[in-house]
Write a structure and sequence with these properties.
about 70% helix, about 80 residues, 3 helices
């Protein structure tokens, strides 16, 4: 969802540099998620994640939610 929002986000809401940085962080997070899923699938028993590992994911989710709210407030049609 975050990458879709960035594709429709105008400069008045987030600068091109800001969009590029957030896009890269989202792509990195997707790669990390794929790696975590592969590890979980390969593990013989359930695994727990440390809160320090989860916190950056939560911060990224909040940032995407904030972008969505800013776009709505600016009257940008949502994709």
């Amino acid at each position: 969802r975050g990458l879709l929002l960035l594709a429709h986000c105008p400069d008045r809401v987030l600068s091109a540099a800001g969009r590029a940085a957030l896009s890269q962080r989202l792509l990195d997070a997707q790669a990390g998620l794929s790696a975590a899923r592969a590890l979980r699938a390969a593990a013989p028993a359930p695994m727990a994640l440390d809160m320090a590992t989860i916190q950056p994911w939560h911060e990224l989710v909040v940032e995407v939610w904030s972008l969505s709210a800013a776009m709505r407030a600016a009257g940008v049609p949502m994709p």
